[in-house]
Amino acid sequence: MESSNLGKNARFSLKRGLTPALLLVIIALVYAIVAYENWAVVLLCLAAGAGLFFAYSRVPAVKALITESMRTDKVLLLVTGILAALVIPLTLRTQPYVIHILIIALISIILALGLNFQVGSTGIPNLGYAAFYGVGAYTSALLSTKLGLSFWISIIAAGCISALFGWLVGLPTLKTRSYHMALVSIAFGLVTYIMLNNMGFTGGPNGIKNIPAPEIFGWSLFSSIRLFGNTYPIQVNFYYFVLIFAILAFVVSRFIFNSKVGLYFNAVREDEIAAKCSGVNTSKMKLLAFAVGAFLAGIAGSLYAHYIGYISPENFNMNTSLQILGMVIMGGMDNIVGVGIGAFILSVAPEKFRSLADFRMLATGLIILLMLIFRPSGIVKQQIRVYAGKIFGKENALKGDNHD
Amino acid sequence: MTEICLSAKDLVMRFGGLTAIDTVSWTLHKDEILGIIGPNGAGKTTIFNVVSGLYTPTSGEINFKGTVINGYAPHVIAKMGIKRTFQQSRLFDNISVLDNVLVGMATLSKGILFKSILARKRLASELSEDIDKCLEILSHFSPFLAENPYRRAGDLVPGERRKLEICRALASDPDVLLLDEPAAGMDPNESAELMEDILKIRELRKGIGIILIEHDMAVVQKTADYNIVLSYGKEIARGTFLEVSSNPLVQEAYLGSEAENA
Amino acid sequence: MNTLLQLLISALLVSSLYSLVAVGFTMYVGVINLANFSHGDTCVLGTFLMMPIFLYATKAGWISASAGLMIPILIILILLLTGIWGAAVYKILVKPLLAAPRLILLLATVAAGQVIREGIRVIYPNGSNPQVFPKLLPSGGFHLLDITLGYDSLTIIFLTIVCILCLNFIIHKTKMGVAMRAVSQNADVAQMMGINIERTIIAVFMIGSALAGMAGILNATYYGITKFNLGSNLGIKGFSAAVIGGLGDFKGAIVGGFLLGFIEVFAAAYIPNGSQYQDVFSFLAVIAFLIFRPSGILGEKIFEKV
Known about the structure:
The complex is a heterotrimer.
Chain A (H helix, E strand, L loop, with lengths): L1 H7 L9 H18 L3 H20 L1 H13 L1 H14 L8 H26 L8 H16 L5 H20 L7 H21 L16 E2 L2 E2 L4 E3 L2 E3 L1 H24 L2 H11 L1 H6 L4 H27 L9 H14 L4 H17 L7 H15 L30
Antiparallel strand pairs in A: 1-2, 3-4
Chain B lengths: L3 E12 L2 E12 L3 E5 L6 H8 L7 E6 L2 E2 L5 H7 L1 E3 L12 H9 L6 H7 L1 H22 L1 H5 L10 H13 L5 E5 L7 H17 L4 E5 L3 H7 L2 E6 L2 E6 L1 H5 L2 H14 L1
Parallel strand pairs in B: 3-8, 3-9, 6-7, 7-8
Antiparallel strand pairs in B: 1-2, 1-4, 4-5, 9-10
Helix pairs in contact in B: 3-5, 3-7, 5-7
Chain C lengths: L1 H31 L6 H21 L10 H25 L7 H22 L7 E2 L8 E4 L2 E4 H23 L1 H11 L1 H6 L4 H27 L1 E2 L3 H16 L4 H21 L7 H15 L14
Antiparallel strand pairs in C: 1-4, 2-3
């Protein structure tokens, strides 16, 4: 099938490499938006981006072109993306703040991927996700500051304890309907916040300070490095460090989506009764969604704590939960790429529009509202699971529509 | 005498003050198609809900392959070998046709998370076999579905939805299949095809026992070996189609309720 | 013994406030099966609408120091305003999403709540800080059996009862009430019987929002302050009360409100360091109910047809 299509369009040799090129253009636009303070430049790039998106979604010819190209150039696309991600911080030597924004964006991506398991894949309305984030951050921070444990032990503990917490929180929800669940999630989100704020050993409202940076074989991420004769700010270290985790989170999410786990998550979301009668242990799947989502939040929490070096309960309140939720909704529920985009936008925008800092939460709420009314499926719609490629022993994808 | 696969003894289901099922008993043998008929509200779907584990019976016993399954969780009962369809097709609308049938297989449960991340090759080869099997089942009932496995289930027409639901139920090679008004809303052509499909199920899966709830008497007549007639939760007659259709009590139950609604 | 009685009065008061919020919340659940997470924030909105109007009225001299009549009129004005707000929320937010999966609508109300909350904070001068709320209730009180019964507490309890009775009247004795009950049981059939569904839902939103405004104002005037973010807390308490009592039922909302109020007041009093964690107790109670008795004390009125 693929070969016949390529043969049809062999005339358009420029089709080869279209999407990677497009990706570079988009990355350049985003780079300009994030790195430049000049509002004229920013607005111009935003307009260009909006135009592209408009063309993609409204002009069928463009959409077909891009979709086709994405299929054939998958590997090239991936390589381009990763290369870009690796190279970019090197160009930002004099702008550590921009690198900082990118690091926060990467952590947000991990968070959004975690929440996506619960809300997007399994359909559980979790409005208190920041609790898992906070539990992870505090666990990691306390283990390294109070007990002097190494970062690597702390982060693993953070993930596991968060996962356990997620599992415990999931238990009451097994028999519940969506609004009960929303309530329980808000409740435990608030309970966690109040506990963190009031308990002595968590430092109360002052939080925990002087959280040590991660060390790799004795080399602390806090030391600046020299590359190609230039000194680079420490943000660069953290950027690559967190980037690895983000890529891992991405890959794991993709594996889960394409497996029976992802499939059963969807079944629970679509129709729990039908899922039960088909033999799916819906309780187990829901608990799994909680645990896996919480695990990622725990990892993200640990990364945050050891990067910033200071955490307080205010980092993990209801606003945070809603912001992460916004990322999932805006990006596209149950769509890994979409969620990543949503996370990027909603973490960069408030930092970028710092001058409008006061309006940040209002803007987030409005964005979520507008997205829900006008494009509830999110920026990137849900993709149909396709079983193709060598791993399934099927060289060609099975025929059929790819619902977009 | 063929083996009994599913039986119920003095089944009672009460919701608060309402008795939906009042001391109903039946036996389903292998290779048998049992029809449950009766006017609306007679408690027929409730029986399915009880058997599939969604409700726990107030009293009485349901026996499946020698085990009393009262109070078992629905997914356990499904794994044991009882599958069902629903009056208003309950499909997983936002995922593909193929995915729907794959869920129906719901066989794997130990360590799937581990496998999906760290043992992908093994998982993939299992999935590959499963996919082949699903496509095969689909091809028996609907070439359209078999050729469009990635169609979003919510986009299907009602006829194809019914077939998909049946395929999903059959994916796990069940011993008992509960069909809840599969012919609802069908025209004569479609219901003729449905009758063929029901008989085909019996061919494809040797030894399966089917319980059929239906209002379309043509379908019942052609497919059911034996029937039980319910009215207001109680059994009022049983026998072959000929026997029950000529039973004055049955006629009154149907016509009587029609007169009320007139 | 005195403290016990005093606590009792306190608990009655807190319970009334929670019940009022819960009852308003139940309107949405009962009639259109919607969990409106912006309900609490609408309560707060009522208070922030009241303050500027009250200030203006005082400046314009309509309210003298001992004014009696003007205040109820102002309150009714606010209720109208919140009611209109409710209708607007329906038109803009809810109507387009009624056909969407419930999760989307639920999330939309959450986002709406946030917009209200942050909107207040950003628009109202000095919005991030707590605001002093005017004293609208009669001060002073009297002594009975060695405890002080404040007139303000009694007024609140009285007004709550009045509101609930009014609501009861509307639901059972007016045409609109009949329509609401019909829609709550079966919207399709109600429509076939000639009931204008849209008008009914708008009425639900208007009444629900007015109740929210009332609850917000009573809450604020008792404690003397209001703040932009009180809504989340209040809304959750109201929701919790409705769930504990049994979702969908007004009696349940009242029972739940009382249970929640009593737990909170008595836990704060008798458990060391209680007041710091008093919210935690309410929430833990809610979670406990959701685990052991999800249908609430009086039993839920919603069930899923298989």
